[in-house]
Each structure stands twice: as structure tokens, then as C-alpha cells.
Design a protein that fits this description.
Elements lengths: L2 H13 L2 H8 L3 H15 L4 E4 L2 E4 L1 H24 L8 E5 L1 H18 L5 E5 L2 H9 L5 E4 L8 E15 L16 E5 L4 H12 L5 E6 L2 H9 L5 E4 H9 L4 E3 L6 E10 L6 H17 L5 H6 L1
Parallel strand pairs: 3-4, 3-5, 7-8
Antiparallel strand pairs: 1-2, 5-11, 6-9, 6-10, 6-11
């Protein structure tokens, strides 16, 4: 097998057909078919099922696709490193909104201070989208609080986090879970780790409620709750200022716990570069220093 075979195979996977892959690669369709046939003969298994005029990737093809993406990526990294291009090759890091609004920027700031000249590309998205990007090698590391599902991913815990129940503090405070029945809640979108934890805890406690709004950012949720439109559950890290200024009120309901763990995630077949190791070590050091609360102001200035 050659890198050419892997490039052709991945293009067929991404475009969904031999003809479209040939057009993108500026090859003839028979040449693409021949390359796939050679791979199937070499590995002794079908990589695609040909049903009518459509092409379907097999389980074996799915398995090979994960390895092929990282073989191609590793080849690119090798070329970049040997040509002295490493500093211009950005480290690609993603984070969920909860992490992005609390610990992500200080960590990036500290990393770039310790590694001047190293470019970094950062992305904020929900857990589901970040997992997808990691699996197709669009990111090197992701920081999430939600569950990832692929067997190809390695997870490293680096901090604890607590989500808190909130209202605007204008009315009588809710003190028991039964008082939350049929209340209106503003929540994050599906695919968000925060949304998943909220739904699980509410379901486990048998609390029926209404959705007042589904938003893809915490700021809009906070504004809706401060306006008295309903309740929410958000990370304590992103509502500390609003709680201190009494624009939001934390509600203590002993039966409910919204605790979770922030985790570093990367692909198990990924070559863990020196720069990736530095980010992982930086997150672990900050966690150890702050005993899971991670006040990064001190970490950033250290």
C-alpha cells in the first residue's frame, strides 16, 4: 500500500463515490476503481459494497478509514517537521462552550506565552461536533465535559465542574425538586454536554418541565433568566459574576446534583506531538495547583 492508495480511498469515503472522487483528484474513474480494488485484494476484504449505482462503505472500510486519516496526517506532519515548518503548522484545539467561557482562553494565553511562534487554531462547539471533528482529523485535541462515544478516542480528566440551578432572584426561592414540576427552563442545544447532563438529572429525578428556549450560547440563556422568563442550569464558572452581583440567584435543591468532569480527548491513533503534550501538561498543572477549581488568573500570570 502507498500513500496514493490512502489518499484515493479517503476521497472516495468523503465524496461517496468513485466518479466524484476521480473528478476531485483529477483522475479517471477506472484508475480510482483500480486503486480501491488493489486495496481490497491486499487486505483480503471488501471496503465498499456496490449496490446498484450506489456505494456503501463496509465495517472493514470504516475501520481502515480511521487509520488512513491518521496515516495521511502523520505524513503531512513529517514533511512539515523535516522542512522546518513546524512552527507554521497550527496546533488545532477545540473546546465546548462551558470550557470556552471559563478556562480555555487563559490556557491558550499561557501556552502561547510559553511557546512563542507556535500558531494555534481554536474552535468552540458542542461536544458532538467536536467529537466529529476529532474523528476526521480536523482537530488535534478537544476539551469537553460531555460524553464522547467513539472507541477510537482517549480521555484524560483534568478538572471537576459543577452546574447550578438558577433564577433571577425576584420571587420565592425553590427549595425542593417537587417545586420544579412544570417550570420553564432555558437550555443548551442537543449535542451539548451541559444539555445532556441536565436532561439526565431531571429524568432521573422524575421532574417534568417545559422548554422555554433552546440556545447555543450561555449569554442568551442568562439574559432570558435574568428577565424572569424561567430557570436554567449552567456551570458555576460562567455565572459567578451574575451570582455575586445578584442578577442571578443560585437555588439550593439538596436532591439535585449536576457535577461533571472536564476531559482532554484525542484520537488513539494520533501521533501525540511535543506541542500536544505541552497543552496536556499545562492543563494538568493548572488543575493540580487549583485543586479542580482552576482559577486560571493565577496560572496565567505565573
Amino acid at each position: 500500500m502507498t500513500l496514493r492508495h490512502f489518499h484515493i480511498f479517503l476521497e472516495v469515503c468523503d465524496t461517496g463515490g468513485m466518479t466524484s472522487a476521480a473528478k476531485t483528484l483529477r483522475m479517471t474513474q477506472p484508475s480510482v476503481s483500480q486503486a480501491i480494488r488493489e486495496m481490497e485484494e491486499y487486505y483480503g476484504t471488501l471496503l465498499f459494497e456496490r449496490l446498484g449505482k450506489r456505494l456503501y462503505i463496509t465495517a472493514a472500510g470504516q475501520e481502515l478509514m480511521h487509520y488512513a486519516r491518521h496515516i495521511v496526517r502523520l505524513e503531512k506532519q513529517t514533511v512539515s517537521s523535516l522542512r522546518g515548518y513546524a512552527l507554521l503548522n497550527p496546533l488545532r484545539i477545540g473546546a465546548t462552550l462551558s470550557i470556552g467561557e471559563s478556562v480555555f482562553i487563559p490556557i491558550l494565553q499561557r501556552f502561547q506565552k510559553e511557546n512563542p511562534g507556535q500558531k494555534v487554531f481554536s474552535r468552540i462547539a458542542n461536544t458532538k461536533e467536536l467529537e466529529r471533528m476529532l474523528l476526521v482529523d480536523e482537530l488535534d485535541l478537544i476539551l469537553v465535559e460531555g460524553a464522547v462515544h467513539s472507541e477510537y478516542l482517549i480521555e484524560i480528566p483534568f478538572a471537576g465542574d459543577e452546574m447550578v440551578l438558577l433564577d433571577n432572584g425576584k420571587g420565592e426561592a425553590v427549595r425542593g425538586k417537587d417545586e420544579l414540576a412544570d417550570k420553564v427552563f432555558f437550555v443548551r442545544e442537543e449535542g451539548s454536554g451541559s444539555r445532556l447532563l441536565f436532561d439526565e438529572v431531571m429524568q432521573e429525578n422524575g421532574i417534568s418541565f417545559q422548554y422555554g428556549g433552546i440556545y447555543n450560547n450561555s449569554e442568551s440563556i442568562k439574559k432570558a433568566v435574568m428577565a424572569g422568563m424561567g430557570y436554567t442550569v449552567l456551570s458555576r464558572r460562567v455565572v459567578q459574576d451574575e451570582i455575586q452581583s445578584k442578577r442571578l440567584r443560585e437555588l439550593k435543591v439538596p436532591e439535585l446534583s449536576f457535577r461533571r468532569t472536564f476531559r482532554i480527548v484525542y484520537h488513539r491513533n494520533k501521533y501525540v506531538s511535543a506541542q500536544m503534550k505541552k497543552v496536556i501538561d499545562l492543563l494538568r498543572r493548572a488543575h493540580d495547583r487549583e485543586d479542580a477549581s482552576i482559577s486560571f488568573d493565577e496560572a496565567t500570570d505565573a
